[in-house]
UniProtKB/TrEMBL annotation, chain A:
Heterodimer of an alpha and a beta subunit. Heterodimer composed of ETFA and ETFB. Identified in a complex that contains ETFA, ETFB and ETFRF1. Interacts with ACADM. It comes from the Eukaryota. Belongs to the ETF beta-subunit/FixA family. Keywords: Electron transport, Mitochondrion, Transport. SUPFAM superfamilies: Adenine nucleotide alpha hydrolases-like. One of its GO terms (molecular function) is electron transfer activity. It is found in: Mitochondrion matrix. One of its GO terms (cellular component) is electron transfer flavoprotein complex. This is Electron transfer flavoprotein subunit beta. Heterodimeric electron transfer flavoprotein that accepts electrons from several mitochondrial dehydrogenases, including acyl-CoA dehydrogenases, glutaryl-CoA and sarcosine dehydrogenase. It transfers the electrons to the main mitochondrial respiratory chain via ETF-ubiquinone oxidoreductase. Required for normal mitochondrial fatty acid oxidation and normal amino acid metabolism. ETFB binds an AMP molecule that probably has a purely structural role. The electron transfer flavoprotein serves as a specific electron acceptor for several dehydrogenases, including five acyl-CoA dehydrogenases, glutaryl-CoA and sarcosine dehydrogenase. It transfers the electrons to the main mitochondrial respiratory chain via ETF-ubiquinone oxidoreductase (ETF dehydrogenase). The keyword Transport applies.
Amino acid sequence: MSGRVLVGVKRVIDYAVKIRVKPDHTGVVTDGVKHSMNPFCEIAVEEAVKLKEKKLIQEVVAVSCGPQQSQETIRTALAMGADRGIHVEVSGKDYDSLGPLQVSKILAALAKKEEAQLVILGKQAIDDDCNQTGQMTAALLDWPQGTFASEVSLEAGKVKVVREIDGGLETIKINTPAVLTADLRLNTPRYATLPNIMKAKKKKIANMKPADLGVDLTSRLEVLRVDEPPQRQAGMKVETVEDLVGKLKEAGKV
Amino acid sequence: MNMTRFLVSLGKRTLLCYARHVGVSQRRCIKTHSRNLAYAKDLFLGQVNKTEVFPYPEIRNEELEEIKQFVAPVEKFFSEEVDSAKIDQEAKISPETLNGLKELGLFGIMIPEEYGGLGLTHTMYARLNEIIALDGSIAVTLAAHQAIGLKGILIAGNEAQKKKYLPKLASGEHIAAFCLTEAGSGSDAASIQTRATLSEDGKHYLLNGSKIWISNGGMADIMTVFARTEVEVDGVKKDKISAFIVERAFGGVTSGKPEDKLGIRGSYTCELSFDNVPVPVENVIGEVGGGFKIAMSILNSGRFSMGSSCAGMIKKLIELTSEYAATRKQFNKSLSEFGLIQEKFALMAINAYVMESMAYLTAGMMDRPGVPDCSLEAAMVKVFSSEGGWICCSEALQVLGGLGYTKNYPFERYVRDCRILPIFEGTNEILRIYVALTGMQYAGKVLSGKIKEMKKGNISMILGTMSKKLKTSLGASVDLGLTGKDWVVHRSLTESAKKFELNVNIFGSTVESLLYRYGKSIVDEQLILKKVADVVINLYAMTAVLSRASRSISIGLRNHDQEVLLTNTFCNEAFFKNNYLIVQLQKHSPENNDANIKKIAKAVLESREYICSHPLERTF
């Protein structure tokens, strides 16, 4: 199967950073904080590049929605082996309220525009943990979806996906074009080596706005407040089961 | 006036020799050409060459983006794939780790792209070294390979040599080593005995001799070897040093087993023996007989990065140590609340700040078109950083007390790895002499030029010199133009800038009076030269922080008020240290202990032991 794969990459706060809530409780501190590509997006890029190396697809296009800095994330994808990038510029208030619904509208529009055979995304982002974008994109396109993929193999006109589910592993076969979302064990992403980063400089990143794709960014969600998780309270030791039941009744839990 | 004769003769000679009296009056030389020296030389004249160092060097936005891109995977690799404890314990870097480094492209950072390298600037090299320095063994292995091992081919090789050797060196398929030191020739590099004799047919040299302390010695495929060759100068046969590219594949090269070292244990250091190794004449780097100059150029060009390496290491130590200081409690308070612990963190922060500032200022100067000679500045960065790094590692260990002393924590490894820094790449003793003599030789040349003019009767020159001396002796305030109308130093730093200017001014007069007092024999006065070097190193450090902080304030970098604090604190400390050193350099200074120090040393060294009677002895 020859064709084009669209990979979505998101710029998030680096996993190793200690998150702090802004004093006005409207969000978390992002200024001057280290950002990098969402780990599940890295896995998605790796899978797409692997498919290209196996000559099962022809072109990998990396897409990111966000402010100017999102270009860094696209460049990392290019350094990992993507062929070109698309930066959909979203900044300011629009970026603050950007969520899975808007992103999936953008990705759906791009998938149609680029005539993609596959859209591969990370299963969720480590900042919002939504786990919605892949599923919404598939629905908007009316394409089949293979989510939580831990194994992907392409066959003529179809994709076999092994999915990690609560009960174990589920194998499904879906038609292309399709949307896949990458889970942790799908692969181990390669390092973007310095020579590859230099080669990536020559690869193109196209710029566009959501309006160019006819996408409306208004959000249906309003963030009321962001708080730190409550401090963990000390526990209590009890001697007997009766004590335990008594204490639980006191606390109104039973 | 015998000063005139001395100064004129100094001016005539382009080499200032540091003599090693070994019974025979054979003089070996530390080369001190004053070529196009960048900035520090004018400090010796009491002048500040503002345009060289203000404003602080900046890189373009694209370059900054690029560096950030490069830094991310290297940091990731070092935090996930490099097990420093294991490397230290097994005294080797695993092939997988080495391969990872090769694939990342770290073996050819400064090799031009056309030969397969990354073609990065000195500034970018310094930035990457901040991360690479997190593991001492890897840092030394990479530096031995590219900062010195293959540097000769880069800076002095011809096109054919570059095409043949650089691509495989850039990919790491071949590893390079720098072979200069021998058992009998360490600091005195010009005395090496390894010999290369031209064959009958004139097609190759036969190399014979042995080298010690060669980093990467056991795994190097390509070596830059320095050996004596016979050359003819004006019909007279002389021995001069030449530089050769030697492949292990030529045959006759044997490496010894790895040395069991205190630190950087993962770096393969060993002896190398050359037994009639045939080296084709095409493999001579540069000119036959021009090897010593090449060796010095290679060493001079690599030193500046020690500033950023040490800064990177100290920044990491601050993270690790502050974690402990914040959580460990004694006397019901966390360690971070105690003054003596706080002092250690201030020390580390100041040191990291100064080292960064000096390193990137020097790298920025080296990256300017025209390739200015920053060997003085690089040497100063090396001395400051190696000693600062050693002290900071030790203090960081101290914060953890007994825990820091165990192998369960990385601090003892950092201390052991750091100890090599003041020793290799030019011992700090040699570098101090080099810095002092080069600067004083330059000052001597300029001053002798002025004296010639005065003797010729150049009235304006005489009046100018006299009025300058009158002004300073009458205590007029010193203004070298750093602040005020055409300011280059931001007004928040005015006080520190004034202190700096004062220091520079007195330093200039001190140098002049030293030249007058000692003349030629200054070369033997190491205790004096050391103080001169320490002053000028402090002055360069002050320059770097004033320049960097001014820029940070002017463009509004985050946390620039912390930078102002660090700059002012450091300049204050350095100002008073310099004053004390300068006071000791005055004639008949009572603060100067040098004469007594020499007497003590003489007595001890003559008897080769401590000579005082035991305090419990009796005479009756």
